[in-house]
Design brief:
Helix content is 34%, strand content 21%. By secondary structure, it is of the alpha+beta class.
Length: 177
C-alpha cells in the first residue's frame, strides 16, 4: 500500500492538526497554508485575509490503516462545513472549509463524499466546503506545528482545540492511537 497525503482546511489549523494526530495510521500532520495566490506567506499575512490562502493541514497517513474517506470523515466531524469563512470564533476567508485534492482520484473521492453527506442531510445547513486542486502548500512556521501538544493549557486550546480532540477520541475510539 504505502502512504498518501490529504490537504484539508476547516478553520484554525491547530484544531484540525490536533484532531488528525489522534488517528492510528496518521504518520505526520503539518500545518500550513494553501488555496491562495501569495507566495510563501507568513502567519500574519494569512491572518490579514488578503492572501487568498486558507489555514490547512497536510495529513500523511498509512493507506494500510486508513482510507482517504476515513480522513474526510474525521475532518467533516470536527468542523462545521456549513459556515462560510468561519469556524467557531475564527472569522475570515483563511478559516474557510476546503479540501485540496492532490490528484483527480482524490478530487472524485472528495466530491463523492460531500455529495453523500449532502444526500444524507448530515448537517442542518448546506455544505459550503470548497474542493479545489492543490497547487502549492506552504508549511507554517515551526511554532505553529504541534501547537496543541506544546500548549495544551493555552486558553484557545482549552476552549477550541481540546473539544475537537475529545470528539475524535470518543467517536473514533476504534481508530485512535
Amino acid at each position: 500500500m504505502g502512504t498518501e497525503t490529504a490537504t484539508l482546511g476547516g478553520g484554525c489549523f491547530w484544531c484540525t492538526e490536533a484532531a488528525m494526530e489522534e488517528l492510528a495510521g496518521v504518520t505526520d500532520v503539518t500545518s500550513g497554508y494553501a488555496g491562495g495566490d501569495t507566495a510563501d506567506p507568513s502567519y500574519r499575512d494569512v491572518c490579514s485575509g488578503t492572501t487568498g490562502h486558507a489555514e490547512v493541514v497536510q495529513v500523511e497517513y498509512d493507506t494500510a490503516e486508513l482510507a482517504y474517506e476515513d480522513v474526510l470523515e474525521v475532518f467533516f466531524t470536527v468542523h462545521d462545513p456549513t459556515t462560510v469563512d468561519r469556524e467557531g470564533p475564527d472569522v475570515g476567508s483563511q478559516y474557510r472549509s476546503i479540501v485540496l485534492p492532490h490528484d483527480d482520484q482524490q478530487h472524485e473521492r472528495a466530491t463523492a463524499f460531500v455529495d453523500e453527506l449532502a444526500a444524507a442531510d448530515a448537517f442542518d445547513g448546506s455544505i459550503v466546503t470548497e474542493i479545489e486542486p492543490l497547487e502549492t502548500f506552504y508549511p507554517a512556521a515551526e511554532k505553529h506545528q504541534n501547537y496543541f501538544e506544546k500548549n495544551p493549557d493555552a486558553a484557545y486550546c482549552t476552549v477550541n482545540v481540546a473539544p475537537k480532540v475529545s470528539k475524535v477520541r470518543e467517536r473514533f475510539s476504534a481508530r485512535t492511537e
